TrEMBL record:
The keyword Repeat applies. Residues 43-98 form the SAM domain. This is SAM domain-containing protein. It comes from the Eukaryota. The keyword Repeat applies. Keywords: Repeat. Pfam families: SAM_2.
Length: 100
């Protein structure tokens, strides 16, 4: 198992969580792509999904949380627009599928 740090666009350390080897690879892949995009919040804006920034500002998210994010989770967080939720879930999945 690998310990992975929390995502934070401000460079602050957050809590850590244990990941399985496959989760760690997926999380590292996601982290790499988000780093290339200069952070998660800028990546959201680049996708035209800036309206989700407030949702993700409410708490600290780690890569595993993002990889496990579901449409219903976003709906419960106050984002009822299906198209935007679908686009975000697809984008996270797509980043995760790209090779490191």
């Amino acid at each position: 198992m690998i310990r992975k740090a929390i995502l934070d666009d401000n460079g602050r350390d957050g809590d850590s969580g244990l990941l399985s080897p496959s989760e760690a690879i997926r999380a590292l892949n996601l982290e790499k792509h988000l780093k290339n995009a200069v952070g998660f919040k800028r990546w959201l804006c680049a996708l035209g999904l800036g309206q989700f920034r407030e949702v993700f500002d409410r708490r600290t998210w780690n890569e595993k949380d993002l990889l496990e994010l579901q449409m219903d989770d976003l709906k419960h967080m106050g984002k009822p627009a299906v198209g935007a939720r679908r686009k975000l879930i697809w984008a996270i999945h797509h980043l995760n599928q790209q090779l490191v």
